[in-house]
Structure formats: C-alpha cells, structure tokens
Amino acid sequence: MNSRVIWCTLIVATSIVSYTVFLNVVYSQATEYSMQEIKPDVYIVSAGGYNSLFLVSQEGVVVVDAPPAIGDKIFAAVSNVTDMPITHLIYSHAHKDHIGAANLFENVTIIAHNETAKILNERNDTNRPIPDKNFTKEINLSIGNQSLLLLYPGPYHQQGNIFVYLPEHKVLMAVDNVIPRGLLWKHLSVTPDVPALIKSIDQIMAFDFDVFVGGHGQPGTKDDIIVQQEYVNDLRKNAVTALNEVNYTEVIKGINGSSSATTEAYFNALTKSCADNIDAKWQAKLEGVGVWTDEHCERMIISESVD
Ligand SMILES: [Zn+2]
Questions:
Q1: pTM score, two decimals?
Q2: Could you tell me the distance, in angstroms and rounded to a whole number, from the CA of residue 269 to the centre of ligand 1?
C-alpha cells in the first residue's frame, strides 16, 4: 500500500527536548497519535485503537468521526498537513466511542444519516451535537475539489451506520464492520441484524475500492475483505451444520433443571460444534481467532434460528 506513516506528537513550539524524551518523559499522557496518508490528501489518524479519516479539499477539511480516544489530536494532525480550516464533520454512526469528541469541533457542518440524528436527539448528549444535515438513502457531496458518497447499507452495527466512499481515491470507510486481517468485534460487532451485516459485506465488495478503512485497526485491501467474507460465510455454514446435527434430546438428557438450563445446555452444544470447526480452520489465518469464536458462533446460531 502506498502509505506514509508518520508518528506525531503535540509539540510545544519552544520545546527543545528530544523526540524520545518527549514521548517517554515529558508527554507520557498518551499525547501521541499516528497518521497515514493513504491517498493524496486522504489521511487516517489513529490513537488508542480508534481511527478518524480526514480529507483535504480546496474549500476545507472534511473529517469522518471524532472518537474521544483521538480527541483534540485530530486538530494537530490536520494542521500538520494543511492550513485549511475543518469545514465538515461526518458521523459514521451515533456511538459515543466514535463521535463523543464532536463537541470539540466549532463552525463545522455535521452530516449524518437521519436515524443517527434521531438517536442523538434522544440521547441529548452535548458531546454529540445533532447533525446539521442528514439523509435517508444516500447523498453525494462535492466539497472543493473532492467528492464523497455517503450511503446507508442497513443496520449492520447500529441503525443509521453509513459507508463513506471516496470514488476518485477508491477508498471505502465502514466503521465497526469487518476488520482487515482481524476479527469482527464481540457478538459479530454487536450487530442488531445479522442478515444486514452479511449483506453489508456484499455491498462493500460491490464498490470499486483498493483501500478499506475501518474504525479500528489498520486499513486493508479488497483481498482482506474477501477473507472476512469467507470467515462470516464459514460461521454461517457451521451454525447451520450445528443446528442440523446437534441432537437436542441427547444434549438435555440428565439435565434436571429449568427450561432455561436445558436451553443453555443446548446452545452451549451448538456453539461448541460451530466454534471447534471455526477455530480449527481459521486459527492461523486471522489475528485473534479463538477469542470471540464462541460469541460469533452463538450470535450466528441465534440468527439462523430466528431471522
Ligand atoms: Zn459502534
């Protein structure tokens, strides 16, 4: 990937301490962040396991997401590459761990999906200002010399979660979806709708992109997303196999408990059947396999039982 990684710090202009001393002694309170230029004028800023993306246009800077873990470091990152003001802030979704520092942005136009606006109206959280502009299905934005497509793929993680696509740069950002070379977060990224999650990965693959950006972890390629899709398809296949092959009557024999105890024993057996197969196949292929396999399997099994 044609990327440039720069480790940056919030350097006090008059400081004469060395970079090492600066990091280790003077500013040990996690003031560092990393910044990658993934395409000309397109940057990822990362800190504390979270990512923001920003895009420099001739009219101003467009930022996607404002995680508290990054906080005001985003301003240092932007001023490191341009004197242009930040004019727009896009919310990927309503969760506070991704946009809870939005209140730090002044004089910006905030754009989000209308479901995100609805959620934020209910939350009444001053750290997450209500969007100035929202949309239902998709919206094309032309800001200076840059184009963005914001699109609602369905609630793969939360109502109102969106894709941010930069067609000229072939960059696609989808937050709290798959993680290149890693694993979906707990319980399939706590999806409220497993079929929407599965469909959203198909939708990602339909875009013409060569850099995928998630809300966590490193960026990836289309090949990385193909692997993620295979992992999710394999979870689904093994969930179905477990439902077909694990014998309820056999499993609950000898359990003299409540109906919740027998249900739990049955689901444990289903989950074990699925997780054993997934771990055996994926252990060496994705970072972290084995940690959440049982949660991924159980979520998929529940979905296959009811959706
Ligand atoms: Zn989230």
A1: 0.89
A2: 30
